[in-house]
Structures are given as structure tokens and as C-alpha cells.
Amino acid sequence: MTSCFITDVLAPVIHRHGGAIPFSLFMDRALYGEGGYYSCPGIKVGRQGDFVTAPAISSLFAELLLLEWVHLWQEMGRPPLFTVLEIGGGDGQFAHDLWLSSEKFPDFHQALDWIMLERGDCSRQRAVLHDRVAAGRCRWIDSLQQLAQQSIEGVIFSNELFDALPVHWLEMTADGLRERGVALDASGAIQSILMPLQPPLTKDYFSDADITLWPGRRTEVGLAGQQLMTDMGALLRRGICITFDYGYPAHEYYSDAFPAGTLTGFFRHQKIEDPLQYPGQMDLTAHVDFTALARAGERAGLETVGFTTQGWYLIGLGILERLEQACQAFGQDDEGHRQRQQLTEAVKRLVMPGAMGERFKVLVQGRGIAAETLAGFRMNNQKKRLRLSCN
């Protein structure tokens, strides 16, 4: 399978580009191109898949965000159309859970309009949402360009999206910053090479951000993610862009804690250090530079409302209170005890520092929305960690 992907997909691209391509192009083809990881049918998300996301752990994740968004809709004056654009919706579980819970709020439910943006295979999303979402109330697109003549009033949401977007893989050499690219060796296998920086990257990228990289240091830059955030911001007329992902502010991301960067592959639940090892069959991921992401949104006129960990955000939304209420509703028999234990373990996984609670962060940027509108930041807003000029 891997050799066919190299021969049929990668080799023609490499030849068209004169024998070498930047890693960002390789990553795009390996994940989203024909025969790529996300383009092929199969279970990627969930306990049976290659990785587990917050919506797959507990429906509480969607229920709490629903309450936040209902309040947001009310603060916005209850517009007749409240659009949720979910980008990279995985298996559709989040959309399913939130839509189901929204039926408890008939007026909001009537206003709710859902758009799924998915570059990869969306057959599982369609299957999950087919019976729950009324015809015409949820539609699929594969690029923001399809919304070019529209603007959104509501929420642009993503969970573990930006870590899976193509990154430029860089190395600081004695002669300055270079880009790592992909070429074919004499046997036709792919190999990593050093090549000049590819536009729009420049040798001043890190110095302009007041970051110093020493020779020998490898890292990555997510220009595709930054551009997507800018495009998202331009699309939002009023409301919020909310991003859940793992990563760090720039000064932490590019510190000595990550001398080889964060670029990683995952193949059959195993962490793979060589990102070229299983092209097309392996997930590729890099942590998110949240400072760069926030600045990209601000370039489109968004205001950075808040930044914190997933644990603190969900606690601010009341997940512990909701856990207590749910546990009280379970019976006192063995089944009730099992349900309480299962839900408690799920919440721990979502909020505890040793699990997803600290590793995952939440960035919210908005237009026409006051920070106090969002309960998720009432306990701990760490926006100053981003070191933005507006902080």
C-alpha cells in the first residue's frame, strides 16, 4: 500500500516540482490527497479508531458547549439563524450530541443551522447525522471558498483540527534557516532533504517573532493553519471562533523543551518518530502555536477573547456541577454504580492535568462579543500567556 502511494501519488508530484517538494506539500498529500490518510474510508476517531477526541469520551462535552452557545445566542439578540460551522468534524459525534441536546431549547434549535467542512471522507459523518439532523439543516462543504458570498453569525468550531494541517518542517543550520523537503532516492523510496525556504516563509520568520533558534534545532511552522484562521475570521460577521487543540504559546513552543520540534506520526496506535515512514497510512500531527494562531485571527479583525486549558474551560462551563447532577440521577444498584463510575472517569479524562485537561488548550476569538459573555473563562483566563501586543 505504501509503495503504491509513493509510486502513484507522491512520485508524480515530486517530479513535477523538479525532484523535491517541501514537507508541507508532502504532508498535505499524505493526509488529504488521493489515497491519503483522511481521504480513505475507515474509522479514524473513537475507541475503535486511531485516536480518541473529547466528543468520543462523553456527550457532556457537547452538552456544556450547547449551554454556552444558547447563552451566546441570547446575548446576540436571538437571531433567527444561528450558524455553527464545524471544521474537521471527525466522525460527526459532536454534531450529533449537540443537535440532540439542542432539542431541549426549541427556539434555539429552530434557529440552529449546521455546516460541516470536511476535506477528507465524510461518509461516516453523514451516516451518524442522517437520522438526527433534519433535511436541509445540515450541509457539507469541502472548502471555505464555497461560503465566499456569505458571512456567519454564530460559531466557527474546531476540535483537533489545526494539529492535523500541513506544517513547514524547518531546521536551523550553521548557514541559517532551511526547510526540510522530500525527494526520491535512487531506489525510488522517499527521503528527507534540506532545501531552501519556500515562500511565503522567510529567514526572518522567527526573529520577527522575537524567537531564537540555535543551530541543530528542528521545529515546524503551521502557515496553513494561520491562513485558515485568518480566512475564518474574515467569514465571521458576529460570534466566536472556538478552537480546541493541543499546543503552546510561541515562547513555550519554541523553547529548549522541544529541541526536535513536535512533528509526530501515529500508526496503528503507535507513535512513529519518522514522519516519512508510512505515507498515506499514518496520521501526521504537530502541536499548535497558539500565539501565531491568535495573531492570524486578529489580522482578520477578530478580538482575542480568551485562552486557557481545556480543564479550566470545562470547569468554567460547570462540568463538575453537571457531573454531580448526573450521578444523583443514577440508581443505587450495580448498574447505577457502573454508570457513575464510567461518567466520573470520563470527566476526569477531560479535565485532569495528567490527561486531556492540561494538554489541550482552548482559544476563543470573536467579533462583537464581550469576554464576560463566555462562562468558560470565568475561572481562569490565561490570555496573557500568548504575549500578544494587545494583552
β-strand number = 16
Q: Which structural class fits the helix and strand makeup?
A: alpha/beta
Shape: globular
Helix content estimate: 25-40%
Mean pLDDT level: 92
Strand content: 15-25%
Total number of helices? 15
Low-confidence stretches: none
Radius of gyration: 21 Å
Please describe the biggest sheet, giving its number of strands, its sense, and whether it closes into a barrel.
8 strands, mixed
Distance between the termini: 50 Å
Task: Give a quick summary of the entry.
This protein is an alpha/beta fold and 391 residues long. Helices cover 36% and strands 24% of the residues.
Note down, in words, how this protein is organized.
With 391 residues, the chain is an alpha/beta fold. The protein is built from 15 helices and 16 strands. Helix 9 runs parallel beside helix 11 and helix 13 (319-329) runs antiparallel to helix 14. The protein is globular, with a radius of gyration of 21 Å.
